[in-house]
Amino acid sequence: MSVPSPSPTLLPGIHRNESYINFEFSFFTLSMILLLIPIFYMPVTIIIILRIFVKLLYAVKDKNVNVPLFSAICISQFMVSCDSRESIQQTDFQCLLFFICDFFFVRLMTSGVFTSWCASVFPNRYLMILYVTTYYVNYANMLFPFLVSTMRLILFAYPQNQAEINRTLLRVALPIIFIYPFFNIFFLITAEAHCSQAWGPFPFGSIVLGFQGSLFGITAQLGGDWTYYAILLRPFGNDLDTCVSPWVFYLTHPIFRRKKITVRVVDQDNIDS
């Protein structure tokens, strides 16, 4: 005897809902317009981050004293887990990982691209991979501004041995930064993700990810219409953090300015006389 499938009325969100299964994606929606806005600034940001990374290569090659601080800044932009001296050899080059995760987690989901597919399947743990990855990277990114600021303070407070102190600080901080997020998402191990309609300013067919069956019954999700306005604005706040930091660093740091070469012309006749 075959096991009957769960009743569609018992499933959360939009799953097995015919209205969403038959949903037709359209390019002319608010969500789709918001999806395309990063085209105007993300390519420039990626180029700037690549140029910062190239400068790190030269700094490591020249054994510059600011390599630890430079590495911390580059790691915060690239999200690469590696030692300051071995960053070039061991780089995963997970460039802009947080932007990519959030792009799939919020922008593509609310655009309606995956609505029909998501409604045609049951809640599952495969969708949970995207949920967990996004929040893991989000928690990890929270400590990088504090780390970079601390290393800058050490640069001014202990200029003579700042390189050694910052190198040690970086080696201690990186394992903490990449381990502590697990303590904030551990309850999602047993959870299943499901797709739900995004309300508020979003049109019909825009969906967001939720979860059920978390460990110990923990629900760390917000409700209410105002939440969806926050979801609408959240990606642009993340973009601001992603773009402003490398732009300011690139435009203000002396290492990225072209060095002026002064040529002194000497009159040989005057020297001989």
Write the layout of secondary structure elements.
Blueprint lengths: L17 H4 L8 H7 L5 H20 L5 H12 L8 H4 L6 H15 L3 H6 L5 H17 L1 H14 L4 H18 L2 H4 L6 E6 L9 E6 L12 H28 L15 H5 L1
Antiparallel strand pairs: 1-2
Helix pairs in contact: 2-6, 3-4, 3-12, 4-9, 4-10, 6-8, 6-12, 9-10
Number of helices: 13
Biggest beta-sheet profile: 2 strands, antiparallel
Write down how many β-strands occur, each being a DSSP E stretch of 2 or more residues.
2
The proportion of strand residues reads under 5%
Average the pLDDT over all residues and give the rounded result.
78
How do the strands line up in the largest sheet? 1-2
Order of helices and strands: HHHHHHHHHHHEEHH
Keywords: Membrane, Transmembrane, Transmembrane helix
Pfam family, one: 7TM_GPCR_Sru
InterPro entries: 7TM_GPCR_serpentine_rcpt_Sru
Organism: Caenorhabditis latens
Question: What does this molecule look like?
Answer:
The chain is mainly alpha-helical. The protein has a domain at 18-40 and 93-240. 56% of the residues lie in helices and 4% in strands. It is built from 13 helices and 2 strands. It is elongated and about 75 Å long. The protein starts with 17 loop residues before the first helix and ends with a helix. The model is unreliable at 1-8 and 80-95 (pLDDT under 50).
